[in-house]
Amino acid sequence: MRLLKLLFIVIVCALLYSAYRALPQYELTAKIPLNGGGFTTDNLQNVYVYHRSTIKEYSSGGKLLYTYSDKSYGDITEVDANNPLKLMVFYKDFPQIVFLDNTLSQNGNAVNPSDLGFPLTSMACVSHDNGLWFYDGQNFQLVRFDVTLTLMQKTGNLSQQLGIIINPYSLQEYNSYVYLNDTAKGILVFDSFGTYFKTIPFKHITSYQIRGDNLFYMLKNKIHSFDLKTIMEDVTIPPDSLVSQVRIEKNLLYENCQDTIRVYSIK
């Protein structure tokens, strides 16, 4: 009996030690002010802070690299930095799209969705061929243009096709899949041709990121990592409380914590 108790204690200690070893270790490396704005990151680990009509690009170490500002289009709604050599800036109030190069200099003329026949475009993102995806709020559909702004795909009315009322919150493409997030329905997934694939049933999520096979998001002050292939999910606790958004680029964790981006090295 004594031997069994000793064996039990050894097993429990080993399990606890393994769990402790599996927890990520964080080292704070930089702080970047948000000043009431939003932020995103790219795969080179740079940070883009946008507020009103201004974008500031920082290195992962917190050094200000470049600044862009143009008040003629109104306030910036979204920055798509999936391609750090061709950033997309979307202005929703008077729908306009501006492309920037890696120094935040404007690349070409602004794109007006109205000129392309879609005046009620409520969101946009870059497509796999350096073109654009729009969500057409008038006809409740996704549309894709190639790099020459030639119309390539239209999904048709998604609410009719899926039998649900869609109220999209955000749009992004990653690895030739398009993700249309409805905070009440979940994340609707489409292939590169706009064909509906599936719905990831995560509700009430306003910010998420996809890297590799993993979808990262914050919920109830915990970082969730959902494997899109195995549908397994890991949950970890961030280094700070009161975190509203996280992004992960390679070995770095970026937190929106009380209006400051806190950058951590993950070990």
What does this structure look like?
- This protein has 267 residues and is mainly beta.
- The chain has two helices and 23 strands.
- It has helices at 2-22, 158-162, and strands at residues 26-33, 38-41, 47-51, 54-58, 64-69, 78-80, 87-91, 96-100, 121-126, 132-136, 141-145, 151-154, 170-174, 177-182, 186-190, 196-200, 208-211, 214-219, 222-227, 233-236, 243-249, 252-257, 260-266.
- It has a four-stranded antiparallel sheet with strand order 1-23-22-21, with no helix packed on it. Strands 2-3-4-5 form a four-stranded antiparallel sheet, with no helix packed on it. A four-stranded antiparallel sheet has the order 9-10-11-12, with no helix packed on it.
- A hairpin with a 4-residue loop joins strand 7 (87-91) and strand 8.
- The longest helix is centred in the N-terminal third of the chain and has 21 residues, at 2-22.
- Mean pLDDT is 92; it is low at 3-21.
- Tell me the span between the first and last alpha carbons: 41 Å
- Beta-strand fraction estimate: over 45%
The strand line-up of the biggest sheet is: 1-23-22-21
* β-strand number: 23
Largest pleated sheet: 4 strands, antiparallel
Shape: globular
Radius of gyration: 21 Å
Q: Uncertain regions: pLDDT < 50 for 5+ in a row?
A: 3-21
- In round numbers, the mean pLDDT is 92
Number of helices: 2
Order of helices and strands: HEEEEEEEEEEEEHEEEEEEEEEEE
Class inferred from helices and paired strands: mainly beta
**Fraction of residues in helix:** under 10%
Describe the secondary-structure layout.
Layout: H1 2-22, E1 26-33, E2 38-41, E3 47-51, E4 54-58, E5 64-69, E6 78-80, E7 87-91, E8 96-100, E9 121-126, E10 132-136, E11 141-145, E12 151-154, H2 158-162, E13 170-174, E14 177-182, E15 186-190, E16 196-200, E17 208-211, E18 214-219, E19 222-227, E20 233-236, E21 243-249, E22 252-257, E23 260-266
Antiparallel strand pairs: 1-23, 2-3, 3-4, 4-5, 6-7, 7-8, 9-10, 10-11, 11-12, 13-14, 14-15, 15-16, 17-18, 18-19, 19-20, 21-22, 22-23
